[in-house]
TrEMBL record:
SUPFAM superfamilies: Homeodomain-like
Xref: InterPro entries: Homeodomain-like_sf, HTH_AraC, MarA-like
Protein name per the record: AraC-type DNA-binding domain-containing proteins
Keywords: DNA-binding, Transcription, Transcription regulation
Keyword flag Nucleotide-binding: no
PANTHER family per record: RIGHT ORIGIN-BINDING PROTEIN
Pfam family, one: HTH_18
Gene Ontology molecular-function annotations: DNA-binding transcription factor activity; sequence-specific DNA binding
Keyword Kinase attributed: no
Organism: Bacteroides faecis
Domain HTH araC/xylS-type stretches: 178-276
Length: 298
């Protein structure tokens, strides 16, 4: 059997390699990350040093060696390294460290902390973090190894930390998820493009797409297209808007463009879609009259 020379084997080129989301980072004293919206959920484990962090939950909090915090996607976060700091950064989109039943139980039965305080890195968690540092320096990591480390972290957090401790992590995740949902539902009808929605919310385009996929579990463009189609059909079937009014309401440049869109996605022109719906309602009305007259509903 041919042997593999480990000296020339580059795991970064392996097809199983993916972007590493558990990263070992050294921050030099004085490093400053200005306040900006987080593009993903993350947990920051401070292995050595002291770091001043600032967010709605952790306003002017001194994060000390052996502590960790969570910041939710879409929240604003600022940090300043007061000394040389050694950290492990764990980024994620879905809250994989919780099963749904535990997450819902904490949301329903465990109140959100009045004052947020960093959590302590207990020995069991320290073993996991220390044992992982050696291979968390590269930009990519084996997909299977990353999955195992995520599961191990989920186990340690779920098994060794109380519901009250985990409430510090769960409530911010739910809060920013719910606030983002409200923003989308309140504003998606006001814009014509994904770019306009991002600008309205003060997000970069990449950040909006990332948060949206996390919260709604589908790309923002596809979601907006689906809502647009639903609105068009509802207006054609149930409103008194003219075809022209519906056309320009949904941002089409011309009636032929609108007609081609309806034929492509609904199989008929706007006029025929409205006509067919009108005929179907009349047939249903006639059927009900026949049933009533024959006693069919008694």
């Amino acid at each position: 059997m041919a042997s593999i020379c480990q000296g020339t084997w580059d795991c970064q080129d392996c097809p199983k390699a993916v972007g590493n989301t558990i990263i070992h980072i050294i921050y030099q004293r004085g490093f400053h990350k200005p306040a900006q919206k987080c593009e993903e959920n993350f947990i920051l484990f401070l292995i050595k040093g002291e770091m001043l962090v600032n967010s709605q939950e952790y306003a002017g909090t001194m994060l000390k060696e052996g502590e960790f915090i969570l910041q939710a996607i879409g929240s604003k976060f600022e940090m300043l390294a007061m000394t040389d700091c050694e950290c492990i950064y764990y980024g994620f989109i879905q809250p994989e460290m919780f099963c749904d039943s535990r997450f819902n139980h904490i949301m329903k039965d465990v109140p959100s902390p009045l004052i947020y305080s960093p959590l302590k890195i207990i020995p069991e968690l320290q073993y996991l973090l220390s044992g992982s540092i050696a291979y968390l320096r590269d930009n990519k990591i084996c997909r299977e190894l990353l999955s195992l480390k995520r599961k191990e972290l989920a186990f340690v957090l779920g098994y060794y930390y109380s519901d009250y401790d985990l409430a510090t992590l769960v409530h911010p995740l739910a809060k920013y998820t719910n606030s983002f949902q409200c923003f989308v539902f309140q504003n998606y009808k006001k814009v014509k493009t994904v770019e306009e929605l991002a600008q309205l919310g003060g997000y970069t385009l990449s950040t909006l797409r990332r948060i949206f996929t996390s919260v709604f579990h589908e790309p923002v463009y596809e979601w907006m297209q689906a809502r647009r189609k639903e609105g068009i059909l509802d207006d054609l079937h149930n409103s008194n808007y003219s075809i022209s009014e519906i056309c320009y309401k949904y941002g089409f440049e011309s009636l032929p463009h609108f007609s081609n869109f309806c034929k492509k996605f609904f199989g008929a022109s706007p006029r025929n879609l409205r006509k067919n719906e009108y005929e179907n309602k009349n047939k249903l009305s006639d059927t009900k009259e026949i049933e009533y007259s024959s006693g069919g509903l008694l």
